[in-house]
TrEMBL record:
This is Uncharacterized protein. It comes from Planosporangium flavigriseum. The lineage of its organism: Bacteria, Bacillati, Actinomycetota, Actinomycetes, Micromonosporales. InterPro entries: Flavoprotein-like_sf (IPR029039).
Length: 94
């Protein structure tokens, strides 16, 4: 479904749009590779990709609200708003 959505976007269809990668996978290596490729794809579409993305192994999805809360807190602790603001201001895609 994601491929169908992204294939329908004009280039650069996500220009300047803040984006966060969210990946679930069975193994850590698979998750890391998928997150990297998704980040590259979103960047090619012009999105401003915040990092690091949210990567969750399937075995950790039970109680995922805590996982998401921890992720958001971590992003905010590194100054996500300033990070995105600087990248949006200069128009540098992720």
């Amino acid at each position: 479904m994601l491929k169908v959505l992204l294939d329908g976007l004009p280039r650069p269809g996500l220009a300047g749009v803040p984006a966060v990668t969210v990946v679930t996978a069975n193994e850590a290596a698979q998750a890391a590779a998928t997150e990297r490729h998704l980040r590259e794809l979103l960047g090619q579409l012009g999105a401003v990709v915040a990092g690091p993305g949210l990567v969750a192994l399937e075995r950790h999805l039970v109680g995922s609200h805590d996982l998401v809360d921890e992720y958001v807190a971590r992003l905010l602790s590194v100054g996500l708003s300033e990070y995105l603001g600087e990248r949006l201001a200069v128009g540098v895609p992720g």
